[in-house]
Amino acid sequence: MQTLSAADFALRLGVGLGRGAAIGIERQWRARMAGLRTNALVAAGATLFVLYSVAAGDVGSPTRVASYVVSGIGFLGGGVILRDGFNVRGLNTAATLWCSAAVGGLAASGQLVFALIATATVLAVHLLGRPLGRLIDHDNPAEEDEDLQPCRLDLTCRRKSEHHIRAMIVQHTSGHEMILRGIRTTRDTTANSGDVQLSALLLLDGDAASRLEQLVARLSLEPGIHEVHWQTADDPDVALRRPEPDPAGSSAES
């Protein structure tokens, strides 16, 4: 019968929790659905379940419990997978939770070095897999990362400045961190009005708010722009419809 001391129990639990938190920090930094706390709790939960079986002294029990943990994480991962039109979102998040549970299982079984290697592998996939996938699929970079945050930029400008403003938006959204999916122009039908309204749908990676604020600050300096603001667009299908003023967003007027 295998005995498990309190110190060994705490060490394995700490390693499992810490490795899950390390994975979660990267997810939190990129503003994903499942961040630090979620991945840390999943890893800690998997560790605790396997540790319970080890402490019970049944030789074959840890393996059986680990198989049950795999099934349970499958149900948890199914809750974060969402269908968005023809696209499916959340697969990366579900896979990450699955890997966090596996790291917890390794830590609980006493394979601390293997748990460290597994954590480094998961982080390497997230950090290196994204640019590699975009390099391979360079014609459609937005489809590779399902967790990109959709946001909408709305502004009112003079009609004669429209082409210049559109060119600025395209120029500032040419990188991988901010992807332009479309621009819609609406003419102001008010009498004697020479203004147009532009709505741009953007996909952003990571800290969407700070990057959008930089773009809004740059556009607000243009003399031809009267008003510019942004807001998150949780439903991309209606993202390019002209919204009502949103106090939750950010605005700048000149």
UniProtKB/TrEMBL annotation:
Residues 153-230 form the MgtC-like C-terminal domain. Keywords: Cell membrane, Membrane, Transmembrane, Transmembrane helix. Signal peptide: none annotated. It is found in: Cell membrane. The keyword Membrane applies. Coiled coil: none annotated. Pfam families: MgtC (PF02308), MgtC_SapB_C (PF21770). Residues 232-254 are annotated as: Disordered. InterPro entries: MgtC-like_C, MgtC/SapB/SrpB/YhiD_fam, MgtC_SapB_SrpB_YhiD_N. Residues 14-134 form the MgtC/SapB/SrpB/YhiD N-terminal domain. It is a multi-pass membrane protein. The chain crosses the membrane at residues 40-59, 65-83, 95-128. Belongs to the MgtC/SapB family. This is MgtC/SapB family protein. It comes from Amycolatopsis acididurans. The lineage of its organism: Bacteria, Bacillati, Actinomycetota, Actinomycetes, Pseudonocardiales.
